Amino acid sequence: MNPRTLTVPLRSLRSSIPLRPAAVTPRIAAIPAARLNVARTYSASADAGREDKFHAEEDKRISELENAKKESDKKAEELAEQIKELKKEIQYVRADYQTAVRRAAEDKVKNSEMAIASFARALLGTVDILSTALRSVPQPIEHQALKQLYDGVELTQKALIQTFGQHKMKRIENLQGQQFDPNYHEAEFMIPKEVAPKRADGEPHGPGEIMQVNSEGWLIGDRVLRPAKVGVVQPE
């Protein structure tokens, strides 16, 4: 066989075989418009549902917060009322305590005064005797011995009165010319205005005035230990 006769067919065969396969473009089937509209509608409905659910949850949380605030406000009002009542109770307790302290102090003073009242009342007679003795001595004193005795009695009286003062005892003084007061004075006698002696300034005593003091009155604290015994001008 002739080699040339084989060469020609081989060449023609080689030229007829493609070197690379041709690219194949895939075909995508067209989606119907109705199906696309359904998909869009479903997506919008899903979004609307999620939004409604979100708003519902938000409304629920807001409602819970509002209820919690109302409950908190109610408890705050109750606590404020309790605090108000407690303040009142504290004020009452404080007032009761202050009253108790004041009464205890007053009772202590009264008990102290009562403890010495009977003893002091007995000593008032001694003061009266000393006062009478001093008034009975004519002035001026010429005898030295009598002067020394007078000074001794006077010192004794002053020391006794000073001791009374240490226990809150004091005399009811400056009685002449004052109006008679039954709370502090005891009238031993009354005389008409026409026959009553005049005052030290020469003026006549008025009705109801004290013109003579027979016995001094004494106070212990604010209480009368012994009323002053006086003579009074008869009231009109």
Automatic annotation (TrEMBL):
Recorded GO MF terms: adenyl-nucleotide exchange factor activity; protein homodimerization activity; protein-folding chaperone binding; unfolded protein binding
GO cellular component annotations of the record: PAM complex, Tim23 associated import motor
Listed CDD domains: GrpE
Keyword Glycoprotein: no
Coiled-coil blocks: 55-103
Keywords: Chaperone, Coiled coil
GO BP, one annotated term: protein folding
Keyword Manganese: no
Stored InterPro entries: GrpE, GrpE_CC, GrpE_head
Family matches, as PANTHER family: GRPE PROTEIN, GRPE PROTEIN HOMOLOG, MITOCHONDRIAL
UniProt cross-references to HAMAP family, sorted A to Z: GrpE
Family note: Belongs to the GrpE family.
Annotated protein name in UniProt: GrpE protein homolog, mitochondrial
